[in-house]
Design a protein that fits this description.
Elements lengths: L6 H9 L14 H4 L14 H23 L6 H6 L19 H15 L9 H14 L5 H4 L8 H26 L22 H10 L4 H10 L1 H6 L16 H12 L5 H20 L3 H11 L7 H12 L7 E4 L4 E4 L2 H8 E4 L2 H17 L7 E5 L8 E6 L2 E5 L2 H15 L8 H11 L14 H17 L1
Parallel strand pairs: 3-4
Antiparallel strand pairs: 1-2, 4-5, 5-6
Helix pairs in contact: 5-8, 5-13, 10-12, 12-18, 13-15, 14-15, 19-20
Length: 474
């Protein structure tokens, strides 16, 4: 930098990563920089790098002023997403007429929430949400506020992530309190931050259990109870399926909460990773899949030209994936011989496609009868309601005879997956290979299954080899 530049100002520009534009502020102090208005910024266009720095300085100063005047956590969303590997491509979508898909919305929300909670004790207020929305809207004008901020009946995606952060903070606070009491040598000055959303002060576990068993809401109170008594619910032999709260339309949130407390907030990994996975996996599908039906799905994907909605494209991708992860042989104790399920079996037991709810009930009865002959129960199932070809009205996850509706297939798959861990269920034999791949690749969970199954060691070994081979390619 120039020697004429104020030393403090030199450090200032180094800190925010600017060099080209610094020479225009030789006579300024750092304090005066913060008072610069947009009209004071140099307007001469020199080169692309200069333009980038002018925009970056403008955004930095705007964020600083907002933060100083209003006292809430201000940030520049464009800068945040450009430096995050999951969102760095999103500025290319700026001002386009198309909306962000679900995975992109979640990624943007994660970046914002991570910025908010750089200070673990930060309390998010309404000003933070409103400011975040102005940033989102400025970059992506087609987005709807309700998607991120929600309304009286339903939280938005930003609020959901803050909510789960506060739950996690409450659980850590409780754990720290217990450790402090338990240890005679504990530091008396141990700092435990106040929780802005304290967990419901339920008097005892039996009373909490009674609420879960007899009520269908409010789901927020159930989540608070579940968080507070997580260790009791996890370790004690309780018939979770008898909880009436799980019969509510939002009951699936408890499965997700349970999973996140087991595996440190991994529930959104499928949604975040699936777009990049499709790009990496498609060449392998084209090259290696031999099954005719799977190749038809691949052909549809290749000829799509972005005309299919996101859920339709994801549906086709899952259907084609069964042709790559071909079911391995297993030993049937009743028949006393090795049996191999077909690709069709795998596909139908993973996602069952029907035209309406009446057809869905017929399929449920059919699957139950099939399982009853084997003296097995029906594990979580996903139904795709497709009234017209490759046009889906909704996706339904059936867990212990309770149905949960979703508009997005990846959310439905995530719900079905995490419920295995809450209910201690093994994957169904017919489609266990694709579930195991989802478990290992997307959720990064190495243990063979949520619960011990009846599979032989040979089958487990073959299955792990198939999944490992595919993971090595990606």
């Amino acid at each position: 930098m120039s020697e004429e530049l104020n030393p403090d100002l030199e450090k200032f520009f180094e800190k925010i990563g600017l060099s080209c534009i610094a020479k225009f502020f030789k006579k300024y102090t750092v304090e005066e920089i913060y008072e610069v208005e947009e009209r004071d910024l140099p307007s001469i266009v020199y080169d692309k790098e200069f333009i980038k720095e002018r925009i970056k300085l403008r955004n930095f100063l705007f964020s600083s002023k907002v933060s100083n005047k209003n006292g809430f956590n201000a940030f520049n969303l464009r800068t945040l997403i450009e430096y995050d590997p999951k969102t760095k491509y999103l500025p290319q979508r700026e001002n386009q007429v198309s909306k962000l898909d679900l995975s992109e919305c979640n990624a943007v929300c994660s970046v914002i929430v991570r910025e908010w909670f750089k200070d673990w004790t930060y309390k998010v207020g309404i000003e933070d949400y409103n400011y975040a929305w102005t940033q989102i809207k400025s970059l992506f004008p087609m987005e709807l506020k309700a998607t991120f901020i929600g309304h009286e009946q339903k939280r938005g995606k930003l609020q959901e992530k803050v909510y789960y952060h506060n739950k996690q903070r409450a659980a850590k606070k409780k754990k720290a309190s217990l450790q402090l009491v338990a240890s005679p040598r504990a530091n008396d000055d141990l700092f435990i931050p106040d929780d802005p959303n304290p967990v419901d002060d339920t008097p005892d576990f039996p009373t909490a259990l009674d609420f879960l068993e007899k009520n269908v809401g409010p789901i927020e109170k159930a989540e608070a109870i579940w968080t507070k008594f997580f260790e009791d619910i996890k370790h004690k032999k309780i018939m979770i399926t008898d909880f009436k709260i799980l019969q509510s339309c939002d009951g699936h949130r408890l499965y997700t909460l349970h999973f996140n407390m087991l595996f440190e907030d991994k529930s959104d990994r499928l949604i975040l990773m699936f777009p990049s996975f499709k790009i990496k996996m498609l060449p392998h599908l084209k090259k290696n899949v031999k099954d005719q039906k799977s190749r038809e799905f691949i052909a549809l994907l290749m000829a799509n030209d972005d005309n299919f909605p996101e859920s339709t494209e994801n549906y086709l991708f899952f259907q084609a994936l069964h042709g790559y992860l071909v079911p391995v042989a297993h030993y049937d104790h009743k028949l006393k011989k090795n049996v191999r399920f077909s690709i069709t079996n795998s596909r139908e037991f993973f996602i069952t496609t029907v035209r309406n709810l009446a057809e869905m009930q017929v399929e449920i009865n059919k699957h139950k009868a099939y399982k009853a002959k084997k003296k097995l129960t029906l594990q979580p199932m996903i139904f795709a309601i497709m009234p017209e070809e490759y046009t889906f009205s909704k996706f339904i996850v059936l867990i212990t005879d309770v149905s949960y509706e979703f508009q997005n297939l990846l959310e439905a798959v995530t719900c079905a997956f995490v419920s295995h861990y809450t209910l201690h269920l093994g994957f169904m034999d017919e489609c266990d290979l694709i579930w195991t791949f989802i478990q290992r690749y997307f959720f990064d969970i190495d243990n063979p299954e949520p619960e011990n199954s009846e599979q032989t060691n040979k089958k487990k070994s073959d299955k792990q080899d198939s999944v490992k081979a595919l993971m090595n390619l990606l």
